[in-house]
Amino acid sequence: MFIWSNTRFRYSLLTVTAGLFSASVWLTACQSSVEKPADIVAAEANLPERVDYNLHVKPILSDRCFACHGPDKAKQKAGLRLDTPEGAYEALAKSGHRAVVPGNLAKSELFHRITSTDPEEVMPTPESNLTLTATEKATLLRWVEQGGEYKEHWSLITPTKPEVPEVADGGWARNDIDRFVFAKAKEKGLTLNTEADKTTLLRRVTLDLTGLPPTVAEVDDFLADNSKNAYEKVVNRLLRSPHYGERQGAEWLDVARYADTHGYQDDGPRTTWPYRDWIIRAYNRNLSFDRFITWQLAGDLLPNPSKDQLVATAFNRNHQQSQEGGIVDEEYRTEYVADRTATFGKAMLGLTVECARCHDHKYDPISQKDYFSLFAFFNSNNERGQIPYNGEAAPTITLTTPAVDAQLAFIQKKLTPLQQQLNVNRPDYQQRFGRWLASNPAETVNPDAGMIARYTFDEANRSDIDAFEKAKNDQKKLEETRKKAEEARETARRKPNDKTLPKPEKKEPRKPKTAVELLKDPRNAFVNLVNDTLPARLGGDSQSLPYPVPGRFGKARFLPGDSFIYLPSELGEFEQNQPFTISSWFKLAKPGLSGTLMGRTTGPMDGQRGYQLDLLPDGRLKVNFNHVWPANSIDIETVGKVPVSAWFQVAITYNGTGRADGLTLYFNGKQTPTRVIADNLKHSTIWGKNKTHWAQHEFFVGRMHDYFYKDFAVDELRLYNRCLTPLEMPRLAGGGDMVSQTLQTPVAKRSPAQRTGLYQYYVTTHDLAYRTAFAEAMKLRGEKIMLYTNSDQVMVMQEQKTPRVTHLLNRGVYDAPGEVVTPAVLHSLKPIPDGTPKNRLGLAKWLLTVDNPLFSRVMVNRMWQQYFGQGLAKNSDDFGNQGALPSHPELLDYLAVRFRDGDGRPGTVASANRWNVKEMHKFIVMSATYRQSSVVPEKKREADPDNIFLTRGPGYRMGAEQVRDNALMASGLLNQQIGGPSVLPYQPDGIWEALATRNAVKYERDHGDSLYRRSMYTIWKRSAPPPMMLNFDAAERHTCIVQRQKTSTPLQALVTLNDPQFIEAARVLAQRAMAKGDRGDKLLIDAFKAIISRPARPQELVLMQQLYAEELADFKKNPKRAQELLTVGEYPVDKNQNPAELAAWTVVTSTIMNFDEAIVKR
Questions:
Q1: Do 655 and 556 share a domain, yes or no?
Q2: Containing H/E element for 22?
Q3: Do residues 1096 and 1084 touch, judged by C-beta distance below 8 A?
Q4: Residues 6+ apart with CB under 8 A from 991
Q5: Based on the number of CB atoms within 10 Å of its own CB, is 331 exposed (0-12), middle (13-18) or buried (19 or more)?
Q6: Fewer CB in 10 Å around end: N or C, the chain?
Q7: Pairing mode, strands 620-628 and 610-615
């Protein structure tokens, strides 16, 4: 009998039990009746015969009681929980009372508390500032009397397709939507409107499906088409329009919190427009909605994902990200994951899951463990908290243009034969190797070949010692001067009227520049034994500079902290196509140390661009070579650990291939086992896009950007511009020259390793053909690297190889981990089916199952909102207990099931239209409900002021983007190009400058056609969104928004009257009409048609002609004023037109653009 989920079964069983119990106590309740206050008795007359828990009771409990007696265990007062029947029915631990005894008011504590007049007893408490009306009290009491039945929340019950009502509508209904609407209107005693006139209907549906008004020709064609399916032909045409994708995409960009900048304080630019273009393409091609969602949530987890599937995952990277220095990386990374979690909850489930981050949800059955279990799905993206100023935050996908693809293919064509020449086992190499062995090869061996720097840390430059002595003398003079100045001040204070005394200096003498680098030891620079013009130097705090200690060979340097050793900028800068070797000796003072031992990296400002050798806390070593760490990188870690309090030698070799297998670590002269963490380096390890840097640093020992590493010693540092072979490595670790020793060893006695090593040494260092091929390949790889680097990159999702461990964070704080949780959905919903992966792909599949009660409801409700101004459930962002109940619950379920399962029309396969967005949109706009006139008599408006029961057509102000696009379209200025980078149209001066810090400081306005792109392409800077669109209630997009607010303010009128874009549009419309010879009524009629899609009415013609005459007279008197008006905007002024006349007609067309019909969808 019971085939629902466990939760459904439990509530169903409780319902039955409660019903039986209420029947058994009903007589008792009647016999032991209670006296109700008079106001409650009076209110009972207005109650329905039977109250419903979801419809009548739960909204009251949720709003007035759940804050103290709801799901949040930490906030529950007196141990009472009213959101479940178990909590309401059971006896309280202290008093033994029961809040609800079904059917028995006298024994129900709820009755006594809500009717009490004692401030110590009454509920809600006076301190809560909440009260219950007499009607609300009467509702709760009747519910108890009728059995106190609980029901599962409406949105958590899986929707099933309801029976379509049979209605006597007189032929009004056009599809099933109308039958549901007609039945509800009849139930409420309301009547429905007739269909809107053809012009109004065409303008409405064109705005709704494309975001643009119809052209004059389109209006004329529709009015002339008297066929029965004329309207359907229009709808089909609009659904095929490329502007359909723009209109739907504009809605989704709010959900996806799309922006062109990162947000937070620095708010630097990001390349996200390819994601916007994908959204437009997806809607235009009618990508099935299940794929539309799956690709955005988990496109990277699909088998062999395409570029489109990867770009779609930018949905989960559109959140704010911080570039600021000094932030706690994990704190901000946690915020990014929290944003994804909240966005998933709001966008896909219609729930405020973010309210359960710090504690259990106060109103909905969402525990803190639920929240972090959902959080776990999004917690393993391969990212960091601080993102770079230069370069997109990894992980990314590179989007090359067709032209770049052609160049890459050409380069690869030239590289392919070179790859064959770089095979060291070629027979011709072996032949030449034999000849080399027979030609006294020992004379050709140079163990220092390719060495560009060697520092023993034994010797200092004489000039630097002299500089130190000078610094000491300058410091001594400085102290003497300070002493004399202080004596003069003291004397002046004692004898203020003695004019013979010198006036005390107000400022201390300037500190000598050389004293800034005052060192505790004169050996502040170390000779490069390869090139003595490139010494190494000490840097950092002059009180804690590295000092000499006994080294592995002679002297070494110990780094005590807040200081470092650095090399000249000419050394150590390697591109990823360049081979190199770096070797040094280290000694750790104590265990547990971690940090950067050496490397050349720009630090977090450029995404760790470059390379570095790090010591991990567990004693292992890590090397990464990066464009932007951690995903656009080569990253390897050692398996073994380094010793403590003993010298050890580390060498890094790299062969220039851009692959992890080309990066090798040696420990004390021997190759050490490593594991690959990342192998995805395609871009430059030196440059950002277009050869730019944010920061540039030298090769450091003991420092990475502004992070210092201490308590270790360094000795014998060497750099090579080639990749040394294994046979050469023992020499760097204090061993002999194994190449020479091997050559001296008789051939018969050479080991296999020696023979292989010697051959490898010969080929890579002596064979001219190999070296020539290698140099050419390195050059071609360099070209390839820069083509990738200069191409656009888009942030995407990419899982770490090892998923992060997710903890329940106490109070939601990043550094307060509690119990470990695993990926799971909310406990109040059915779990992810067995066999489905517990990752984002599994989460997407779970969303789309028949058992998910929320997803399809939430989506069709937002579609309805798009066309009618509000959803069937008014609160699109909250399908929980605090959200409003659906006005037409059966219709909502009907649409949800139709969207999920297909329409099932005769002669079609139902599944053929599953998740079909265009089909659902057409179904809505073809309905008689949508096609109703929005004109409403005052009496009818009073009966249904907010059009909750859909008794008239939709009528409300256009969205921000549509208001501007309508003006551009009417004037003929609109640039209808689809897609591409964001543009910078007119904007008041100084807004960016007032708010910017280091990034995008000045708004550099575009010119030409870019000024007239559709508004969805306007650059969106989070700290300073387009002010025109903010005035018209556009979302700021800091977070996911599924429902824009609607306001009406004087600022909106000031925008349409004074914004340069609107003034220019009005002027261009007027001058184009004048250029055709239009004047007077002809100009006015055409202007009305262009702006509001209908001809002017006679009275409007009179008023507009009168306005024209007044303005013309004024402009003739004030030609300068006319000229000022005409020069607004960049579009050229028609010099053939009389300036006063053009200015006057501009005022007229501007006035028409401010008609209610110009900005309101009717």
A1: yes
A2: helix 6-31
A3: yes
A4: 1003, 1024, 1027
A5: middle
A6: N
A7: antiparallel
List, in order, residues 6 or more apart from 307 with CB less than 8 Å away: 397, 399
789: number of Cβ within 10 Å: 22
Looking at residue 521, its pLDDT comes to 43
In whole angstroms, what is the distance from residue 1018 CA to residue 983 CA?
5
Taking only the tens place, the pLDDT of each residue in 697-744 is 899 999 988 788 899 999 999 999 999 999 999 999 999 999 999 999
In whole angstroms, give the CA distance from residue 270 to residue 883. Answer: 35
> Which of 126-130, 457-461, 498-502, 1119-1123 has the highest average model confidence (pLDDT)?
1119-1123
According to the model, what pLDDT value does residue 907 have?
46
Decide if 55 is inside a domain: yes
Report yes or no: 256 and 276 within 8 Å, Cβ to Cβ: no
- What lies within 8 Å, CB to CB, of 737 at 6+ separation is 445, 447, 731
> Residue 846 CA to chain centroid, in angstroms?
23
Measured distance CA(304)–CA(314) in Å, rounded: 17
The pLDDT tens digits of the residues spanning 744-801 come to 999 999 999 999 999 999 999 999 999 999 999 999 999 999 999 999 999 999 999 9
Residues 561, 473 within the same domain = no
Report percent pLDDT > 90 for the chain. 83
Contacts of 716 (CB under 8 A, 6+ apart): 454, 455, 456, 457, 551, 552, 553, 583, 584, 585, 649
Largest CA distance in the chain: 121
Q: At what angle do helices 1119-1126 and 1060-1075 cross, to 10 degrees?
A: 100
Same domain for 543 and 602, yes or no, is yes
Beta strands in 743-836 (DSSP E): 792-795, 806-809, 817-821
pLDDT at 174 over 80: yes
pLDDT of residue 175: 97
Q: Is the pLDDT of residue 230 over 90?
A: yes
Which run of H or E residues covers position 1112? helix 1098-1117
Whether residue 608 sits in one domain with residue 475? no
CA nearest neighbour of 1024 among 1039, 1035, 1036: 1036
Task: Please state, as a whole number, how many other Cβ atoms lie within 10 Å of the Cβ of residue 116.
Answer: 12
For residue 661, give its domain range. 525-736
Helix (H, G, I), strand (E, B) or coil at 580: strand
Q: Scanning the structure block, which residue is given the tokens 């390869």?
A: 530
Cβ atoms of residues 196 and 231 within 8 Å: no
One domain for residues 570 and 625: yes
Calpha distance 804→216 (Å, rounded) = 59
Which residues on neighbouring strands pair with residue 714, listed in sequence order? 557, 586
